[in-house]
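fold-stage: in
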Amino acid sequence: MATTPQPPRPPAEPRPQRSSHILAIALLFLALIVVLGALGIFIGVRVLTNAVHVNVDQADSGKKNVSIKTPLGSLEVNQGVNEASLGLPIYPGSTAIKENDSATVNLDIADEEKLRVLTGKFETPDSLDKVAAFYHIRLGDQVTSFKKKNEEGKTVFEIKHDKEDRVVALKSNGDKTLIEMVHVSAGRQEAN
């Protein structure tokens, strides 16, 4: 017996693939993360720019004072120093070399110790030996370390106590004596 040929079957409709839906959902989720991240960065930058205060003040003497305050802390830089702020005697008759070489820097980071750095550079026509004798007398037994003519040719007086370091470095500079002073202190005390 002969069988009758059957007409060809129409192709089956393709079944929807689940992976295309998962891919679309993943891409939408990724786009949402990118948009939220960009929005967070934008808001963060806006908050910080509104919270950061920068103040530059120039006194009548020509000295500049810069103050930057943020929610994370503050930085202050004041040109010029004096004997009281340095906590070190300034050699009588010496003159500041450049106003830009003497400054007070106060750094206060939230929940950290405050850091204060004072620097001053002076010069005098007096001899290195005469200036060194002055500092030997004035600093006396406060000195915790003394080096005469170190590898850089400097005579160095160091005073270290707890979280406070003071240094006076002397060096011959032609017919003059260069005096460099640094005072570094750290702690929770208020910076002046």
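fold-stage: in (second)
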Amino acid sequence: MLADKFDDWQRLFNAAKQVQGERVISPFIEVGGVAAAILTKSGNIYVGICIDTASSLGMCAERNAIANMLTNGESNIDKVLAIMPDDKVGLPCGACREFMMQLSKDSGSIEIITNYENRNTVLLKDLMPDWWGAKRFLRS
């Protein structure tokens, strides 16, 4: 089972790396410095890149990947990986963490890689202790 875990992270890293590539779209928009890949509970991988704009209308790579997943009819994330411009992995920002938590009552179990070389991970619920919205899932 341990080998499968490593294979998943390698697959996610490779998928994110394929779309990563910083480029200027216009004098107002730069994209691709950060890339993300998510693995769904059904085993599919979706990718996204960051979109940075002069007017703060951009989108993080993680949310872009999630939008791609939602567009394709899925909503249950298993694992998340984001690659920074220096090829190190990075944690999702607060907005991305919040967005993931709102997807499902089980989102706290999403595994996020914190160190690719050592395969260290953290669960989303550990990054969002005492999350404000948990009780809403109990009502649904």
